[in-house]
Protein backbone atom coordinates (compact mmCIF):
# COMPACT_ATOMS: atom_id res chain seq x y z
CA UNK A 1 0.00 0.00 0.00
CA UNK A 2 1.49 3.37 -1.01
CA UNK A 3 2.13 5.93 1.69
CA UNK A 4 -0.44 8.66 2.07
CA UNK A 5 0.65 12.22 1.50
CA UNK A 6 1.40 13.93 4.81
CA UNK A 7 1.41 17.73 4.65
CA UNK A 8 2.66 18.19 8.23
CA UNK A 9 5.78 16.11 7.69
CA UNK A 10 6.52 17.37 4.22
CA UNK A 11 6.53 20.97 5.48
CA UNK A 12 9.22 20.17 8.08
CA UNK A 13 12.09 21.09 5.70
CA UNK A 14 13.65 23.72 7.98
CA UNK A 15 13.65 21.30 10.89
CA UNK A 16 15.39 18.68 8.78
CA UNK A 17 18.05 21.15 7.52
CA UNK A 18 18.79 22.28 11.06
CA UNK A 19 19.44 18.69 12.10
CA UNK A 20 21.64 18.05 9.05
CA UNK A 21 23.79 21.08 9.83
CA UNK A 22 24.20 19.86 13.42
CA UNK A 23 25.57 16.44 12.39
CA UNK A 24 27.82 17.80 9.61
CA UNK A 25 31.34 18.91 10.48
CA UNK A 26 30.93 22.18 8.59
CA UNK A 27 27.66 24.03 7.86
CA UNK A 28 28.70 24.53 4.25
CA UNK A 29 28.82 20.75 3.79
CA UNK A 30 24.99 20.77 3.64
CA UNK A 31 23.94 21.73 0.13
CA UNK A 32 20.70 22.21 -1.76
CA UNK A 33 17.45 20.49 -0.90
CA UNK A 34 16.90 17.34 -3.00
CA UNK A 35 13.27 16.57 -2.00
CA UNK A 36 11.25 14.37 0.32
CA UNK A 37 10.61 10.65 0.18
CA UNK A 38 7.49 9.09 1.81
CA UNK A 39 8.82 6.04 3.58
CA UNK A 40 5.58 4.92 5.27
CA UNK A 41 2.42 6.30 6.85
CA UNK A 42 3.33 9.36 8.93
CA UNK A 43 7.06 8.82 8.05
CA UNK A 44 8.92 11.11 5.62
CA UNK A 45 12.67 11.51 4.80
CA UNK A 46 14.12 14.86 3.69
CA UNK A 47 17.37 14.78 1.62
CA UNK A 48 20.07 17.46 1.24
CA UNK A 49 23.10 17.33 -1.05
CA UNK A 50 26.47 16.75 0.59
CA UNK A 51 29.18 19.14 -0.59
CA UNK A 52 32.00 17.70 1.50
CA UNK A 53 35.13 16.61 -0.40
CA UNK A 54 35.16 12.94 -1.29
CA UNK A 55 31.40 12.48 -0.91
CA UNK A 56 30.17 13.15 -4.42
CA UNK A 57 26.68 11.66 -4.90
CA UNK A 58 26.01 11.39 -1.16
CA UNK A 59 23.05 13.11 0.63
CA UNK A 60 22.17 14.14 4.17
CA UNK A 61 18.98 12.27 5.03
CA UNK A 62 16.76 13.35 7.93
CA UNK A 63 13.66 11.24 8.71
CA UNK A 64 10.71 12.82 10.58
CA UNK A 65 7.49 11.33 11.92
CA UNK A 66 4.36 12.32 13.92
CA UNK A 67 1.85 10.61 16.15
CA UNK A 68 -1.69 9.99 14.93
CA UNK A 69 -3.69 13.21 14.84
CA UNK A 70 -0.49 15.08 15.82
CA UNK A 71 0.45 18.42 14.26
CA UNK A 72 4.15 18.42 15.25
CA UNK A 73 7.00 16.66 13.39
CA UNK A 74 9.50 14.72 15.38
CA UNK A 75 13.03 13.75 14.16
CA UNK A 76 13.51 9.99 14.11
CA UNK A 77 17.04 9.69 12.66
CA UNK A 78 19.65 11.59 10.58
CA UNK A 79 22.48 10.10 8.55
CA UNK A 80 24.64 10.48 5.41
CA UNK A 81 23.52 8.04 2.74
CA UNK A 82 24.93 7.35 -0.76
CA UNK A 83 22.98 8.13 -3.88
CA UNK A 84 22.82 6.35 -7.19
CA UNK A 85 26.10 7.84 -8.51
CA UNK A 86 27.94 7.87 -5.18
CA UNK A 87 31.54 6.60 -4.92
CA UNK A 88 31.37 3.56 -2.63
CA UNK A 89 33.99 1.35 -0.98
CA UNK A 90 34.30 -2.28 -1.86
CA UNK A 91 32.06 -4.75 -0.05
CA UNK A 92 33.42 -5.67 3.32
CA UNK A 93 35.38 -8.91 3.57
CA UNK A 94 37.04 -10.61 6.54
CA UNK A 95 40.72 -9.85 6.82
CA UNK A 96 41.65 -13.48 6.11
CA UNK A 97 39.90 -13.17 2.73
CA UNK A 98 41.32 -9.74 1.96
CA UNK A 99 44.92 -10.92 2.15
CA UNK A 100 46.76 -11.37 -1.13
CA UNK A 101 50.14 -12.94 -2.01
CA UNK A 102 52.86 -10.65 -0.73
CA UNK A 103 50.80 -9.18 2.12
CA UNK A 104 52.26 -11.49 4.76
CA UNK A 105 55.10 -9.78 6.60
CA UNK A 106 57.40 -10.77 9.46
CA UNK A 107 55.34 -11.99 12.40
CA UNK A 108 52.06 -12.34 10.44
CA UNK A 109 50.24 -15.67 10.70
CA UNK A 110 47.51 -16.93 8.42
CA UNK A 111 44.44 -18.64 9.90
CA UNK A 112 44.29 -22.40 9.63
CA UNK A 113 42.05 -23.74 6.86
CA UNK A 114 41.19 -27.36 7.47
CA UNK A 115 39.28 -27.59 4.19
CA UNK A 116 41.92 -26.02 1.92
CA UNK A 117 41.33 -27.61 -1.51
CA UNK A 118 45.00 -27.17 -2.43
CA UNK A 119 46.05 -29.73 0.20
CA UNK A 120 45.29 -33.34 0.97
CA UNK A 121 46.34 -35.69 3.77
CA UNK A 122 49.91 -36.87 3.50
CA UNK A 123 49.13 -40.24 5.05
CA UNK A 124 46.49 -41.79 7.25
CA UNK A 125 47.74 -43.26 10.54
CA UNK A 126 46.85 -46.93 10.84
CA UNK A 127 47.31 -47.17 14.58
CA UNK A 128 50.06 -49.79 14.15
CA UNK A 129 53.36 -48.20 15.33
CA UNK A 130 55.48 -50.35 13.01
CA UNK A 131 53.47 -49.47 9.91
CA UNK A 132 53.31 -45.78 10.79
CA UNK A 133 57.04 -45.73 11.52
CA UNK A 134 57.79 -47.09 8.04
CA UNK A 135 55.54 -44.46 6.48
CA UNK A 136 57.13 -41.63 8.44
CA UNK A 137 60.82 -42.58 8.49
CA UNK A 138 61.36 -44.60 5.31
CA UNK A 139 58.74 -43.16 2.96
CA UNK A 140 59.13 -39.58 4.28
CA UNK A 141 55.37 -39.21 4.78
CA UNK A 142 55.74 -37.28 8.01
CA UNK A 143 53.79 -34.28 6.68
CA UNK A 144 50.20 -34.25 7.74
CA UNK A 145 49.12 -32.67 4.43
CA UNK A 146 50.69 -32.48 0.99
CA UNK A 147 49.81 -30.78 -2.27
CA UNK A 148 46.69 -32.05 -3.93
CA UNK A 149 46.39 -32.30 -7.73
CA UNK A 150 44.54 -29.00 -7.64
CA UNK A 151 47.34 -27.35 -5.68
CA UNK A 152 49.97 -28.68 -8.10
CA UNK A 153 47.98 -27.49 -11.12
CA UNK A 154 47.45 -24.00 -9.67
CA UNK A 155 51.14 -23.67 -8.76
CA UNK A 156 52.25 -24.78 -12.23
CA UNK A 157 49.92 -22.35 -13.97
CA UNK A 158 50.92 -19.49 -11.67
CA UNK A 159 54.65 -20.08 -12.17
CA UNK A 160 54.38 -20.58 -15.92
CA UNK A 161 52.36 -17.40 -16.45
CA UNK A 162 54.47 -15.39 -14.00
CA UNK A 163 57.64 -13.37 -14.37
CA UNK A 164 59.79 -16.50 -14.75
CA UNK A 165 57.90 -18.13 -17.58
CA UNK A 166 58.66 -18.13 -21.30
CA UNK A 167 56.66 -15.00 -22.18
CA UNK A 168 58.71 -12.38 -20.31
CA UNK A 169 60.71 -9.83 -22.37
CA UNK A 170 64.03 -11.12 -21.02
CA UNK A 171 63.13 -14.69 -21.87
CA UNK A 172 62.08 -13.80 -25.42
CA UNK A 173 65.33 -11.88 -26.01
CA UNK A 174 67.59 -14.60 -24.58
CA UNK A 175 69.63 -16.82 -26.89
CA UNK A 176 69.26 -20.03 -24.87
CA UNK A 177 66.59 -21.62 -22.70
CA UNK A 178 67.04 -22.64 -19.06
CA UNK A 179 66.59 -26.28 -19.99
CA UNK A 180 70.10 -26.34 -21.53
CA UNK A 181 71.80 -24.20 -18.85
CA UNK A 182 74.38 -25.75 -16.56
CA UNK A 183 73.20 -23.74 -13.54
CA UNK A 184 69.79 -25.44 -13.44
CA UNK A 185 68.79 -27.59 -10.44
CA UNK A 186 65.89 -29.90 -11.42
CA UNK A 187 62.86 -30.52 -9.24
CA UNK A 188 61.40 -33.85 -8.27
CA UNK A 189 57.92 -35.06 -8.94
CA UNK A 190 55.50 -33.95 -11.61
CA UNK A 191 56.57 -30.31 -11.34
CA UNK A 192 60.09 -31.31 -12.36
CA UNK A 193 58.93 -32.00 -15.91
CA UNK A 194 58.39 -28.28 -16.45
CA UNK A 195 60.25 -26.36 -13.73
CA UNK A 196 63.63 -26.19 -12.00
CA UNK A 197 65.56 -23.86 -9.69
CA UNK A 198 68.15 -21.37 -10.98
CA UNK A 199 71.52 -21.48 -9.17
CA UNK A 200 73.40 -18.77 -11.08
CA UNK A 201 74.31 -15.80 -8.88
CA UNK A 202 74.64 -13.56 -11.96
CA UNK A 203 71.10 -14.30 -13.07
CA UNK A 204 68.13 -12.16 -11.95
CA UNK A 205 66.32 -15.45 -11.22
CA UNK A 206 68.93 -16.83 -8.82
CA UNK A 207 67.32 -19.08 -6.20
CA UNK A 208 63.89 -18.96 -7.87
CA UNK A 209 61.76 -21.49 -9.70
CA UNK A 210 61.93 -21.00 -13.49
CA UNK A 211 60.31 -22.85 -16.34
CA UNK A 212 62.56 -24.93 -18.57
CA UNK A 213 61.75 -22.71 -21.56
CA UNK A 214 62.52 -19.53 -19.63
CA UNK A 215 65.79 -17.72 -20.38
CA UNK A 216 68.07 -14.86 -19.42
CA UNK A 217 71.40 -13.35 -20.45
CA UNK A 218 73.39 -15.38 -17.90
CA UNK A 219 73.04 -18.72 -19.72
CA UNK A 220 76.07 -20.96 -19.24
CA UNK A 221 76.63 -21.43 -23.00
CA UNK A 222 76.05 -17.93 -24.35
CA UNK A 223 78.64 -15.32 -25.27
CA UNK A 224 78.62 -11.80 -26.66
CA UNK A 225 79.92 -10.93 -30.09
CA UNK A 226 83.21 -8.99 -30.02
CA UNK A 227 82.44 -5.32 -30.49
CA UNK A 228 84.51 -3.52 -33.14
CA UNK A 229 86.84 -0.87 -31.79
CA UNK A 230 86.47 2.75 -32.82
CA UNK A 231 90.23 3.42 -32.55
CA UNK A 232 92.13 3.54 -35.86
CA UNK A 233 94.51 0.72 -36.61
CA UNK A 234 98.08 1.56 -35.57
CA UNK A 235 100.95 1.48 -38.06
CA UNK A 236 103.02 -1.70 -37.94
CA UNK A 237 106.23 -1.53 -35.90
CA UNK A 238 109.37 -2.75 -37.65
CA UNK A 239 112.24 -3.94 -35.50
CA UNK A 240 115.34 -3.19 -37.58
CA UNK A 241 117.78 -4.36 -34.91
CA UNK A 242 116.56 -7.95 -34.73
CA UNK A 243 118.48 -10.51 -36.80
CA UNK A 244 117.05 -13.88 -37.74
CA UNK A 245 119.71 -16.54 -38.40
CA UNK A 246 118.65 -19.04 -41.06
CA UNK A 247 120.54 -22.24 -41.83
CA UNK A 248 120.50 -22.93 -45.57
CA UNK A 249 121.37 -26.35 -47.03
CA UNK A 250 124.83 -26.53 -48.65
CA UNK A 251 124.84 -26.25 -52.45
CA UNK A 252 126.42 -29.13 -54.27
CA UNK A 253 129.37 -28.15 -56.45
CA UNK A 254 128.61 -28.81 -60.15
CA UNK A 255 130.77 -31.35 -61.93
CA UNK A 256 133.39 -30.09 -64.35
CA UNK A 257 132.63 -32.84 -66.88
CA UNK A 258 130.25 -32.00 -69.69
CA UNK A 259 129.04 -34.52 -72.26
CA UNK A 260 129.70 -32.78 -75.57
CA UNK A 261 127.82 -35.52 -77.41
CA UNK A 262 124.61 -34.51 -75.63
CA UNK A 263 125.12 -30.85 -76.42
CA UNK A 264 123.86 -29.72 -79.79
CA UNK A 265 124.57 -26.09 -79.21
CA UNK A 266 127.39 -24.49 -81.15
CA UNK A 267 127.42 -21.73 -78.61
CA UNK A 268 129.41 -22.00 -75.42
CA UNK A 269 128.03 -23.86 -72.42
CA UNK A 270 125.38 -21.84 -70.62
CA UNK A 271 126.49 -19.92 -67.61
CA UNK A 272 125.55 -20.94 -64.09
CA UNK A 273 123.80 -18.29 -62.04
CA UNK A 274 126.72 -16.12 -60.98
CA UNK A 275 126.93 -14.29 -57.71
CA UNK A 276 128.75 -11.47 -59.47
CA UNK A 277 129.11 -10.63 -63.13
CA UNK A 278 130.91 -13.49 -64.86
CA UNK A 279 133.32 -13.31 -67.73
CA UNK A 280 132.06 -14.61 -71.09
CA UNK A 281 132.80 -18.23 -71.87
CA UNK A 282 136.04 -18.74 -73.78
CA UNK A 283 135.74 -20.94 -76.82
CA UNK A 284 137.91 -24.02 -76.47
CA UNK A 285 140.43 -25.23 -79.03
CA UNK A 286 139.65 -28.45 -80.97
CA UNK A 287 140.56 -31.56 -79.07
CA UNK A 288 142.34 -33.09 -82.11
CA UNK A 289 145.15 -30.48 -82.08
CA UNK A 290 146.03 -30.85 -78.38
CA UNK A 291 149.12 -32.54 -77.16
CA UNK A 292 148.77 -36.22 -76.17
CA UNK A 293 148.98 -37.02 -72.50
CA UNK A 294 150.98 -39.97 -71.35
CA UNK A 295 148.99 -42.80 -69.89
CA UNK A 296 145.74 -41.84 -71.53
CA UNK A 297 146.15 -43.78 -74.79
CA UNK A 298 146.50 -40.73 -76.92
CA UNK A 299 143.47 -38.93 -75.55
CA UNK A 300 143.60 -35.20 -75.88
CA UNK A 301 143.99 -33.20 -72.72
CA UNK A 302 141.15 -30.77 -72.33
CA UNK A 303 141.92 -27.14 -71.85
CA UNK A 304 139.87 -25.12 -69.37
CA UNK A 305 137.00 -23.20 -70.84
CA UNK A 306 136.22 -20.65 -68.18
CA UNK A 307 136.45 -20.01 -64.47
CA UNK A 308 133.18 -18.77 -62.94
CA UNK A 309 133.43 -18.28 -59.20
CA UNK A 310 135.50 -21.38 -58.57
CA UNK A 311 133.41 -23.47 -60.99
CA UNK A 312 135.45 -24.97 -63.85
CA UNK A 313 133.72 -26.06 -67.05
CA UNK A 314 135.86 -28.07 -69.51
CA UNK A 315 135.36 -29.97 -72.66
CA UNK A 316 135.57 -33.69 -72.13
CA UNK A 317 135.44 -36.81 -74.17
CA UNK A 318 132.05 -38.37 -74.97
CA UNK A 319 130.31 -40.91 -72.78
CA UNK A 320 130.72 -38.64 -69.77
CA UNK A 321 127.65 -37.99 -67.60
CA UNK A 322 126.42 -34.44 -67.51
CA UNK A 323 125.53 -33.03 -64.08
CA UNK A 324 122.15 -31.25 -64.28
CA UNK A 325 123.25 -28.08 -62.48
CA UNK A 326 124.07 -26.25 -65.71
CA UNK A 327 121.41 -25.20 -68.18
CA UNK A 328 122.18 -25.63 -71.89
CA UNK A 329 120.38 -23.65 -74.51
CA UNK A 330 118.17 -25.99 -76.58
CA UNK A 331 118.03 -26.25 -80.36
CA UNK A 332 121.61 -25.20 -80.97
CA UNK A 333 124.21 -26.61 -83.38
CA UNK A 334 127.66 -27.83 -82.53
CA UNK A 335 130.44 -25.60 -83.76
CA UNK A 336 131.95 -27.03 -86.96
CA UNK A 337 135.51 -26.47 -85.74
CA UNK A 338 135.08 -28.75 -82.73
CA UNK A 339 136.27 -32.30 -83.06
CA UNK A 340 135.52 -34.92 -80.47
CA UNK A 341 137.81 -37.87 -80.03
CA UNK A 342 135.74 -41.02 -80.09
CA UNK A 343 135.87 -43.52 -77.25
CA UNK A 344 138.43 -41.67 -75.27
CA UNK A 345 138.43 -41.13 -71.52
CA UNK A 346 139.50 -37.64 -70.65
CA UNK A 347 140.22 -36.54 -67.15
CA UNK A 348 138.57 -33.34 -66.19
CA UNK A 349 141.19 -31.32 -64.46
CA UNK A 350 141.01 -27.97 -62.78
CA UNK A 351 142.22 -24.86 -64.49
CA UNK A 352 145.50 -24.91 -62.58
CA UNK A 353 146.45 -28.31 -64.15
CA UNK A 354 146.54 -30.24 -60.89
Secondary structure topology:
Layout: H1 7-10, H2 13-23, E1 30-40, E2 43-50, E3 58-65, E4 74-82, H3 95-98, E5 119-121, H4 129-138, E6 145-147, H5 149-160, H6 169-173, E7 184-186, E8 195-198, E9 209-211, E10 304-308, E11 311-314
Antiparallel strand pairs: 1-2, 2-3, 3-4, 5-6, 7-8, 8-9, 10-11
* Total of helices: 6
Number of strands: 11
Mean of residue pLDDT values: 75
Biggest sheet, in brief? Answer: 4 strands, antiparallel
Q: Please give the order of strands in the largest beta sheet.
A: 1-2-3-4
Helix content: 10-25%
**SSE string:** HHEEEEHEHEHHEEEEE
Oligomer: single chain
Shape: elongated
Low-confidence stretches: 287-302, 305-313, 344-354
β-strand percent reads: 15-25%
Distance between the termini: 162 Å
Radius of gyration, Cα only, in angstroms?
Answer: 60 Å
Which structural class should the secondary elements be placed in?
Answer: alpha+beta
Amino acid sequence: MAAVKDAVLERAVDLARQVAVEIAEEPQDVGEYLGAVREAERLVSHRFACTARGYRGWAWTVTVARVPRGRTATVCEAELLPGDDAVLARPWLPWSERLRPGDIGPGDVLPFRPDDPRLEPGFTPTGDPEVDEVAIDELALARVRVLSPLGISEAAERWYRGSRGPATPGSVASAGACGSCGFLVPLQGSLGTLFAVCANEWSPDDGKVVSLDHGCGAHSQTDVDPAPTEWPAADPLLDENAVDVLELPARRRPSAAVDTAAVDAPEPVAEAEPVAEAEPVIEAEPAAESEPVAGNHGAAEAEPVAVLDEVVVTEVAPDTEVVPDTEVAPDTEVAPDTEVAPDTDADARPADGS
